[in-house]
Amino acid sequence: MAFRSRIIGTGSHLPDQVVTNAQLSEKIDTTDEWIVERTGIRERRIAREGETTSALAFQAAENALDAAGITAQDIDFVVVATTTPDNTFPSTATKVQAMLGMDHGAAFDIQAVCSGFIYAVAVADNFIRAGQAKNILVIGAEVFSRIIDWEDRTTCVLFGDGAGAVVLQAVEVEEDAKVGILSTHLHSDGKLRDLLYVDGGPGTNQKVGHVRMLGRELFRHAVNNLASVVGEALEANDLTQDDIDWLVPHQANKRILDGTARKLGMPADRVIITVDRHANTSAASVPLALDEAVRDGRIKEGDLVLMEAMGGGLTWGAALVRW
Ligand code: ACO
Question: Cα separation of 3 and 29, whole Å?
């Protein structure tokens, strides 16, 4: 017998403030037409003053726990993927743990920028496979708007704020059973760190810093790395792209989504897309898209779901799930 992780509930939360492309074009030299054509983004949610990553994460967690039909008292670990923690320390996860009224278990953050949620799912899945946890809350949450240079039109139009969460539960199954999370695949290449980084931060730099990006280079790496890690996940499970019911990609840019789907030969109607309304919410984008597709009934029990992401580092990864 062996332990596997099943996703028993999903949840999400977005700030109520919508910022459209037209509103951005009043402040910087851009147009709705340019942004839609190059990125597919039409609007994004932006946190209000005082609205923190932990606050968004907590709401998403509550919604995921409700959907799972369990309470925070049943949770063993809280794992938060974020690049925009409330503070340098303590971790945002420990804040969420306290907000959930937990005085047991363990909580920690994971930092892999836009791939953070996939990394967090992989870590949680391995705790469950090792028999060290029964229920794990995995959250991707960001207030990216706080590290954006709002005068840099090449980056500020691309990002948004939000949070998504899932509850993983251990099930004991036959060794070769194909249930729940089938496999996870992580990669990074630190030589490419200068393609996307923050020029400061709460570490040794003593200033908050802003996102800096080489967009064209990133675009090229994104399509190649994502198609490659999706292939790796399928091959590891003796499956092909025809077996995938739903691709839930990191929502960076509609052209990256289309390019990856085309490279994989996936029809567009099997790709979950939220980038038009959420923009790039970094670690929150995959769980936000996942929650939408679960709640509107597209993702159903038995479906094969492939989640993938790439982000600063560079980091990239995929998780293949039998729902
Ligand atoms: N509005 C109007 N014009 C703009 C804007 C804007 N917001 N931003 C840039 N431009 C201009 C540039 O200044 C440039 O003008 P120039 O030719 O006079 O110099 C022109 O548009 C073309 O700029 P490029 O950067 O070459 O445009 P490109 O077609 O590469 O599109 C984009 C830029 C959308 C950023 C694209 O490179 C991209 O999507 N890259 C991936 C970036 C990404 O998704 N990063 C997220 C993190 S990584 C990840 O999550 C996978």
Answer: 54
Q: Is the CB of 310 under 6 A from ligand 1?
A: yes
Helix runs in 163-251, H state only? 215-236
Mean pLDDT by 10 residues, the chain (323 residues): 97 98 97 97 97 97 98 98 94 98 97 98 98 98 95 96 98 94 98 94 71 92 92 96 96 92 90 98 98 98 97 97 97
CA of 121 to the centre of ligand 1 (A): 30
Cβ of 280 closer than 6 Å to ligand 1, yes or no, is yes
Strand 77-81 with 106-110, pairing = parallel
| Residue 215 CA, ligand 1 centroid: distance in Å | 6
Please tell me the CATH code under which domain 2-173 is placed. 3.40.47.10
Domain with CATH 3.40.47.10 in the chain: 2-173, 180-322
The CATH number of the structural domain formed by 180-322 is 3.40.47.10
